[in-house]
Amino acid sequence: MSSFKRDKKEEEDTGGNPYLNLDKTIVLQEARYFNETPVNPRKCSHILSKILFLLNQGEKLSTQEATDAFFATTKLFQSKDVMLRRMVYLCIKELSSLAQDVIIVTSSLTKDMTGKEDMYRAAAIRALCSITDSTMIQAIERYMKQAIVDKNPAVSSAALVSALHLSSTAPDLVKRWANEAQEAINSDNAMVSYHALGILASTRKNDKLSTVKLVTRLAKSPLKSPYALCLLIRLAAQLVENDDSDASQPYIDFIECCLRHKSEMVIYEAAHAIVNLRKTARDLAPAVSVLQLFCGSSKAALRLAGARTLARLTTKHPTAVAACAVDLENLISDPNRSVATLAVTTLLATGAESSIDRLMKQISSFVSEISDEFKIVVVKAIRRLCQKFPRKHQSLAAFLAGMLRDEGGLEYKAAIADAIITLVEENPEAKETGLAHLCEFIEDCEHTTLAVRILHLLGREGPKSRQPSRYIRFIYNRVILESGPVRAAAVSAVAQFGAQRPELLPNIRVLLARCELDDEDEVRDRAIYYNAILDSGDQQLINDFIIDVPKPNPVLLEKALRDHIATNPDEPFDIMTVPMEEEKKEEKEDIAAIEVRKPKQMTIEEIYSEQLAQVPGIEKLGSIFKTNMPLELTEAETEYRVRLLKHVYVRHIVLQFECINTLNDQILEEVHVRLECPPEYEIKSIVPCQKLLYNQPGSVFVVLEYPSSYLDSLGTFGATLEFVVRDCDPNTGNPDPGEGYADTYPLEEFYMGCSDQIRARGMGEDWETTWDRAANVPEISDTYALPEQDPAAAAKSVCEYLGLPKATIVGEAVKEIRGGGVFRGGAPFLVRARIASSNVGVTMLIAARSPREDVAQLLLAAVG
């Protein structure tokens, strides 16, 4: 027990990390000390600590290094020191996945596992199960069963947790230990009971009937362990979610009964389950009452749990939370800032319009005391409030402007700017107020990216305001005072005023002429560029290159340019073939989120670009035009799941069949797809999937060339999956000897439509102007009788066929579709359709305009 002693001097010297600058080579050399006899337990423990530290810091050991360290560590089994032995077990666990021939220590670990020293047994079980594979675990099955029902809780828990890990590799074997786990559920130790229930739930997760029986039986005889009871509540909640019938009522009654449990943990788990399950506010009352009590608790953890859950509930049932307003207001002054911030955001989300001013006064003193991350949460709550109560925009905008003048980082300032920008874009009455606040802010803005963004907004919204000239001074000040990127953005913003307000054009030309003398190349180039376009007087040119400029996806544009330079450097590059950058959809934010690290959003084309790179010669097809959303070709519960992605190029289409094998006793090899194409299509190449393992996706690619005529591109395809089946061991995945046998699997037919080949573009407010400007373009129109009985349903159906968003539908009694976009190859088009009820049903008059007449014909053929 000498290893438990520490010198007083050592206790006092606690500064720094003693393992900070470890060198892997030196530590591995020190491990050779394990071969000496006798050994110093204290020194050995210190060396093992260094090895574990290096491994947990991500240091990579070669197989030989790990094997040498592993076998040197096994020499320490000769020591009887308790602390050293436990360190040995830890090190064996960590090195077992890196070293070779680790099975050699099985006998030593088995001996410790079945010995009389309880300090060894639990750690030995964990180490043994980590190095033993599914084929050898049967040799210790008897010992594992004994350990599960052992009287020592540490040993029992170690066996149960190890069994839980083994269930992923040997599920059938672990199922045989169900009787022992069932016995362990009744243990007086809370953790043993919890782990035992975890084993039973894990082995029955794919068997709904067994899970129902387990939950029903345990719900009638409440468990002693609060941890196990929490897990049981979660299992019951899952059953309720998956069953909408009255048969789930007993589980709901059980969860509600747990609201009266003596353990706060169980009470919260039950309240949390009810809040996330129930649909009506009436059923939420008991859970909300419990959470309300938590808000008044003396324990910070309970106050946080109550406030956080009520905040989440606000998004679905704000009226149910309104009763807790008094308790939440008391939390505004809570010393825990997480609790206070949640209380504030919840009050903002549930408060009435009449209480907004009072809340703002309470928050004004609160905001100055919290950090930026909490301020951002408050700003987002105010932003939602602006959308909820548009008439309060004056006071809310003034409050945000005050926050904008305070000290803060870029992220905080950007959140406030986002809120004001949203206010400007969504509330016409607030446009002048919001723009004035932003103009005042950029006078002293120290963040380049934020200044550029606000200038872009002023250029877009300023010309549409009642007094556009008032904003030009603020914008031009940036040309005089700011850095290069901000000056360039200011030039672009000024050009917007000249393009959209003819009365200001002479003054704008003077300002742009001055910018042509700027020291920055980008500023000069932009000024010359915009001056030349404005001097032309061509309204179409001004619209296409200043007002409504297409924005290609930058990632795909870079890839398209690289491919173009590598394959066709002498030919002109058509930017219209590159997919446009999609507008970011406003996601519903979680009120309770204090800090959210959102992953970078990627388009579907970016997601699949690496997979498409596997296709030989893919760069010769040019830049990708569009990737369509996946289409399921099989039912969800079939043995093989296949979905189709259509990657559209100018003259070709790549069909990607994503396949998943759901049978764990089979491996599919040489997987390919046999297509039945319309006669005008030509198959260029097929890239098969060489091996499809259990539950691991693989893809088959088929490259097709489009017909020369656009009208011939519409058609139905048949598909059959062909492969070689090889049986395998379901536990290890090793294939059985033999060559396997050929088999096929029919897939559903799929249609190549017009919507697959076009990319819709958002049409601005000046739709009529855009349509009139295309008056000289070839137009094709026709009248159709539609099968639908309702004009609204018919309009949605037409939009689906044409690949247009639902936002293009306007009108009430008479539905009108106003859409446009680009066809593969870069040909633009406009579509206008009027749909109304008539005596014979629903009638549609549709017209399409495009520089290419065959594109207009295709659009009408798609709905004809």
Automatic annotation (TrEMBL):
<keyword id="KW-0813">Transport</keyword>
<comment type="subunit">
    <text>Oligomeric complex that consists of at least the alpha, beta, beta', gamma, delta, epsilon and zeta subunits.</text>
</comment>
<dbReference type="InterPro" id="IPR002553">
    <property type="entry name" value="Clathrin/coatomer_adapt-like_N"/>
</dbReference>
<dbReference type="GO" id="GO:0009306">
    <property type="term" value="P:protein secretion"/>
</dbReference>
<dbReference type="InterPro" id="IPR016024">
    <property type="entry name" value="ARM-type_fold"/>
</dbReference>
<keyword id="KW-0963">Cytoplasm</keyword>
<keyword id="KW-0333">Golgi apparatus</keyword>
<dbReference type="GO" id="GO:0006886">
    <property type="term" value="P:intracellular protein transport"/>
</dbReference>
<comment type="similarity">
    <text>Belongs to the COPG family.</text>
</comment>
<dbReference type="InterPro" id="IPR011989">
    <property type="entry name" value="ARM-like"/>
</dbReference>
<dbReference type="GO" id="GO:0000139">
    <property type="term" value="C:Golgi membrane"/>
</dbReference>
<dbReference type="GO" id="GO:0072384">
    <property type="term" value="P:organelle transport along microtubule"/>
</dbReference>
<dbReference type="InterPro" id="IPR013040">
    <property type="entry name" value="Coatomer_gsu_app_Ig-like_dom"/>
</dbReference>
<keyword id="KW-0677">Repeat</keyword>
<dbReference type="InterPro" id="IPR012295">
    <property type="entry name" value="TBP_dom_sf"/>
</dbReference>
<dbReference type="InterPro" id="IPR032154">
    <property type="entry name" value="Coatomer_g_Cpla"/>
</dbReference>
<keyword id="KW-0472">Membrane</keyword>
<dbReference type="GO" id="GO:0005783">
    <property type="term" value="C:endoplasmic reticulum"/>
</dbReference>
<keyword id="KW-0968">Cytoplasmic vesicle</keyword>
<dbReference type="GO" id="GO:0006888">
    <property type="term" value="P:endoplasmic reticulum to Golgi vesicle-mediated transport"/>
</dbReference>
<keyword id="KW-0931">ER-Golgi transport</keyword>
<dbReference type="GO" id="GO:0005793">
    <property type="term" value="C:endoplasmic reticulum-Golgi intermediate compartment"/>
</dbReference>
<keyword id="KW-0653">Protein transport</keyword>
<comment type="function">
    <text>The coatomer is a cytosolic protein complex that binds to dilysine motifs and reversibly associates with Golgi non-clathrin-coated vesicles, which further mediate biosynthetic protein transport from the ER, via the Golgi up to the trans Golgi network. Coatomer complex is required for budding from Golgi membranes, and is essential for the retrograde Golgi-to-ER transport of dilysine-tagged proteins.</text>
</comment>
<feature type="domain" description="Coatomer gamma subunit appendage Ig-like subdomain">
    <location>
        <begin position="607"/>
        <end position="751"/>
    </location>
</feature>
<protein>
    <recommendedName>
        <fullName>Coatomer subunit gamma</fullName>
    </recommendedName>
</protein>
<feature type="domain" description="Clathrin/coatomer adaptor adaptin-like N-terminal">
    <location>
        <begin position="24"/>
        <end position="537"/>
    </location>
</feature>
<dbReference type="Pfam" id="PF16381">
    <property type="entry name" value="Coatomer_g_Cpla"/>
</dbReference>
<dbReference type="Pfam" id="PF08752">
    <property type="entry name" value="COP-gamma_platf"/>
</dbReference>
<dbReference type="Pfam" id="PF01602">
    <property type="entry name" value="Adaptin_N"/>
</dbReference>
<dbReference type="GO" id="GO:0006891">
    <property type="term" value="P:intra-Golgi vesicle-mediated transport"/>
</dbReference>
<dbReference type="GO" id="GO:0030126">
    <property type="term" value="C:COPI vesicle coat"/>
</dbReference>
<dbReference type="InterPro" id="IPR037067">
    <property type="entry name" value="Coatomer_gsu_app_sf"/>
</dbReference>
<feature type="domain" description="Coatomer subunit gamma C-terminal">
    <location>
        <begin position="756"/>
        <end position="863"/>
    </location>
</feature>
<dbReference type="InterPro" id="IPR009028">
    <property type="entry name" value="Coatomer/calthrin_app_sub_C"/>
</dbReference>
<dbReference type="InterPro" id="IPR017106">
    <property type="entry name" value="Coatomer_gsu"/>
</dbReference>
<dbReference type="InterPro" id="IPR013041">
    <property type="entry name" value="Clathrin_app_Ig-like_sf"/>
</dbReference>
<dbReference type="GO" id="GO:0005198">
    <property type="term" value="F:structural molecule activity"/>
</dbReference>
